[in-house]
Amino acid sequence: MKSIYLAGFDVFRPDAIAHGEHLKALCARHGFLGLYPLDKAAPAGLPGPDTARWIYEANINLLRRADLVMANLDDFRGPGEPDSGTVFEAGFAVALQKPVWGYSADAGTLLERVAVARGEDGAMLDARGFVVEDFGLGKNLMLACSVKLVAGGPAECLAAMAEAERRRSCRGNGAQSED
Q: What angle do CA 130, 135, 136 make, to 5 degrees?
């Protein structure tokens, strides 16, 4: 059974533990083992920086252990921007040459969702005056070009991941693929 590291800002939800159990159950329904960052808690009594280091190392170890990564890339603390920790984890997994899948229910291109004004040179700018890239993508090109993006939520993403694994195993068994 392949394991999936479940990256996302879901760990900040008020019901984070219950949501993690839900995500792991969804994984199991598709034949995967879900690895959720909150499955283990930091030892009690650590000072803040030591707790942060413990969490970082635990998550890095889970990422190394996982066969795949599924990342919640919905907007987090601003339009057009997923959680920076999740983006780090996706990049780390890409560097480890692990397949990374991301999901987002945020519709539209980055330009449609973020741009607020036109600059003197005609470029579209965000609220702080920075140019918004216009490649017709829903996420920054570094995510859109490295992660298999699925529109929707975790259920849709896991269904796509399971289908890709099914096709991969069929090809490995000599069957024809529709890819």
A: 110
